[in-house]
Write a structure and sequence with these properties.
Blueprint (H helix, E strand, L loop, with lengths): L1 H20 L2 H4 L7 H6 L10 H16 L1 H27 L1 H30 L3 E3 L6 H18 L1 H15 L7 H10 L13 H8 L6 H31 L14 E3 L2 H18 L5 E4 L2 E4 H20 L2 H6 L5 H16 L1 H8 L7 H5 L9 H14 L2 H11 L4 H7 L1 H12 L9 H12 L7 H23 L2
Antiparallel strand pairs: 1-2, 3-4
Helix pairs in contact: 1-13, 4-5, 4-15, 5-6, 5-15, 6-8, 6-12, 6-13, 6-15, 7-8, 7-9, 7-11, 8-22, 9-11, 10-19, 11-23, 12-13, 15-22, 18-19, 18-21, 19-21
Protein name: Transporter, UIT6 family
Keywords: Membrane, Signal, Transmembrane, Transmembrane helix
Length: 481
């Protein structure tokens, strides 16, 4: 079993490494630059180019409900079909060079780093096992959600979510109602908890690279975080208590009580190394790199991704198959996320291009609502950044509205409310959908592979609209007026 596991993942790691390195010799000799055309294309595209992306979202929402067997067998093919539904017409209209550039740029600068980071965190945290008697009663569950919320800003929402989701699911294995616990876990640990530092969520890391002080978000987003966490943890405790009583206050099967024990602690050192690698790639800029089909790959990012792959391999080597078996560790959730997000990233290219065009693109009217007459409206910045972050990548959405607000980090930090609204919108509202933030879909996949019947895409949004949106309304009245 262990040999098969290592062989399978080793092949995956080798493939990813080759993707990063294979074109380097050719890239040094490549000439020309399509970057300017790609930057300008968003001004030329209308809303119809976003139809494949909408189709991808609808497929994620509808197929698991209407044709679950088909979806489980062919979700990768469906994702590829929607990616091609964008790419083929784009190449026909704008030429193969620009089309290929867009895909290569998205793959090498966004998708591959995204998948490598997820793979690394998924593998490392899958080698950490909390053993002992942990019973998923309301107080215990609320405590785990609180711990995860506090950890998310310091080890990233993805890291905290991957570390805690398996122990939480195991603790509630005897419970009838479990989906609500995973939903609140996504709300708090996979999203809202990551608002205090650039470690927490990619948009804040981009803000840090743009000149926002490291602890600015800690200082200004602490009260919004406490407000949201207090409401959501209280709501969760009341809901879980009611469901716990409805179940008859169930107890797990009788077994000898054992003290809590953490196994695979060496993986925690690897997890700390992941944080160091990500931070180093953001603060170290050697001004070196190479090009792959005119796409510039910076040296620090290449070294970061190779280091992450090395940490993934190290985790596989030092973690026994028995320990991973205790965690019910399987590769299917990673495979599902990799294939589905490949379709999302490619089909999303025109939507992101239009959004980046700002006031000169097809969404000019929408983007312009944030600063009517040049006057910043923090409430509109919060809601527009948040709504678009719910369905699109929250990192470029953050940058778009950061630039709409002037793009001057020093001025925005002094103004406080506008930058606060953009930051909170990008991080908090990533919880509105399964695709709003990287760990959401992964948490859902892990939960389903563990036997938890999770809400559908739209079913989840009923939870988020019913619970989060009223909270965001109160947040607007308190902090963005």
């Amino acid at each position: 079993m262990r040999d098969h596991l290592q062989l399978t993942v080793g092949a995956t790691l080798m493939t990813l490494a080759l993707l990063l390195l294979a074109f380097a010799p050719q890239a040094l000799a490549s000439g020309g630059d399509l970057h300017h055309q790609a930057e300008e294309i968003g001004r030329l595209l209308d809303w119809t180019w976003a139809i494949p992306f909408a189709g991808m979202l609808l497929s994620i929402a509808v197929f698991p409900l209407l044709a679950p067997g088909f979806w489980s067998q062919h979700f990768g093919k469906v994702a590829a079909a929607w990616a091609l539904a964008y790419l083929i017409p784009f190449v026909a209209v704008h030429g193969w060079e620009l089309g290929l550039y867009q895909v290569v740029h998205t793959a090498l600068t966004e998708y591959v780093p995204f998948i490598i980071l997820l793979l690394t965190l998924f593998t490392i945290t899958g080698g950490v096992h909390l053993s002992g008697t942990l019973v998923g009663a309301p107080l215990v569950n609320t405590g785990i959600l609180l711990i995860g919320t506090l950890l998310a800003s310091w080890m990233g929402t993805t890291g905290a979510a991957m570390l805690l989701i398996r122990p939480l699911i195991r603790a509630n294995a005897h419970r009838k109602y479990r989906a609500h616990t995973v939903v609140f876990f996504i709300f708090l640990v996979a999203n809202i908890g990551g608002c205090l530092t650039p470690f927490g969520d990619p948009p804040l890391f981009l803000g840090f690279l743009k000149g926002v002080r490291f602890f600015w978000t800690t200082q200004h987003l602490l009260l919004p975080l406490l407000f949201m966490a207090a409401i959501l943890l209280s709501l969760y405790f009341l809901l879980d208590s009611a469901l716990f009583r409805r179940e008859g206050s169930p107890k797990p099967p009788k077994a000898k009580k054992a003290k809590l024990k953490l196994e695979g602690t060496a993986n925690l050192l690897l997890l700390a190394a992941v944080v160091v690698c990500v931070l180093a790639s953001g603060v170290w800029h050697p001004d070196m790199g190479f090009e792959v089909f005119h796409v510039h790959i910076e040296l620090q990012n290449l070294l970061r991704d190779l280091a992450l792959l090395g940490l993934t391999g190290a985790s596989l080597m030092i973690t026994s198959a028995e320990l991973r078996h205790k965690n019910s560790f399987e590769w299917e959730p990673m495979e599902e996320v990799a294939k589905i997000f490949a379709g999302i990233f490619v089909s999303m290219i025109p939507a992101i291009a239009i959004l980046r065009a700002g006031t000169e693109g097809a969404l000019a009217g929408l983007v312009g609502l944030a600063a009517p007459g040049g006057v910043h409206d923090p409430a509109m910045f919060f809601w527009l950044t948040g709504i678009l972050s719910s369905l699109l990548d929250n990192a470029p959405t953050y940058l778009v509205f950061f630039n709409v607000a002037g793009g001057d980090a020093q001025a925005l930090m002094a103004e406080v409310q506008t930058l606060l609204a953009i930051s909170a919108g990008a991080v908090f509202m990533g919880a509105n959908s399964y695709i709003g933030n990287a760990p959401n879909f992964m948490v859902r996949s892990i939960a389903e592979s563990s036997g938890v019947k999770m809400p559908s895409f739209f079913g989840y949004m009923i939870w988020s609209v019913g619970i989060l949106v009223p909270c965001f309304g109160l947040l607007t009245l308190l902090f963005f007026r």
